[in-house]
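Q: What would this complex look like in 3D?
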Amino acid sequence: MPNKTTDFSERTIEYGTLLADFKELLKRNGLKFTIQREVILEMLYNSDEHLTPEALHQLIIHKRPELKAGIATIYRTLSLLEDSDMVTSLSFGAQGKKYELGAKDHHDHIICTECGEITEFVDEEIETRQQLIATELGFKMSDHSMQIYGTCKTCQKK
Amino acid sequence: MPNKTTDFSERTIEYGTLLADFKELLKRNGLKFTIQREVILEMLYNSDEHLTPEALHQLIIHKRPELKAGIATIYRTLSLLEDSDMVTSLSFGAQGKKYELGAKDHHDHIICTECGEITEFVDEEIETRQQLIATELGFKMSDHSMQIYGTCKTCQKK
DNA sequence: GTCGCTGCAAAGTCTTTGCAGAGAG
DNA sequence: CTCTCTGCAAAGACTTTGCAGCGAC
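A: Here is my prediction, written as structure tokens for the whole assembly.
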């Protein structure tokens, strides 16, 4: 059996394109393009991490202190982006959701329960089977998410 | 390829056995067996649903009004049960977690995004691959969860 | 009897909302 | 100019914690 599992984490879209999509989305809905919205998108784009609203807030405060961005705006923008399928949220374990840009190719997550590190991957075989399962159970599949929990290489050494 | 996907939802353990395990667990940790704890376990056992702490609370208030069980006790007991791996929590979408007894065989979930119905299933092929993926990425897998989102048969008709 | 458990209410988190002024189109 | 956005602070939703009396062992 060929190995079809890929450790996946590269960005698949140019920032310019993403930004254009975002502006287009805003225009289509009669919404305005503001500096806060742009910065949030940019931070999500440039982060390799899955960010919590609070982490995103801190990031903005540190990198763009002149904005004095309020946490409420972060939440509002993330909701907007999530509703428009531009970002995806992951909710696991304790409290709080983490967000990531949805502009990357689809992938699943493997999460270290010790340090919280998240690695992304795709496995064709699983993707195919999920579709099959949904059909078998009479569902029309729209989305899915899979998380594997475990201990990462680094934490195993400790 | 043989079909190894199963629609799975039956209970695989007698209540008596479960209760004995629970008592055993409590004794082992120097904890006490109380009527509240028993009722919570029983409600989880008898429910086909995945319950939120609040739903569980309401259920107890209605079925055992004499207990006047406090929501705090529900939370405390659920945490206890979760820490001991007797129940599993699912957190998805909006806010709040839902709990289910872990005494059933392992399974994954397919969730209707319209009505919130949750169907359980197991697919051997996916189970096997998950283990493989974790190993490939240098993780020691401890657990995993998978959710498929879609529209169920009933909601598709609407 | 001892020591953990419980309900209650208060305190915490995280997230959402109301509002008046700021700013995009 | 108009009408949406924003920051702030207040309000909400959900969960946890402190405490004094209660109850399992």
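A: To summarize the key features: Residues 30-32, 34, 36-37, 68-73, 76, 95 of chain A lie near DNA strand D (CB under 10 Å from a C1'). The mean pLDDT of chain A is 83.
Q: Very helpful, thank you.
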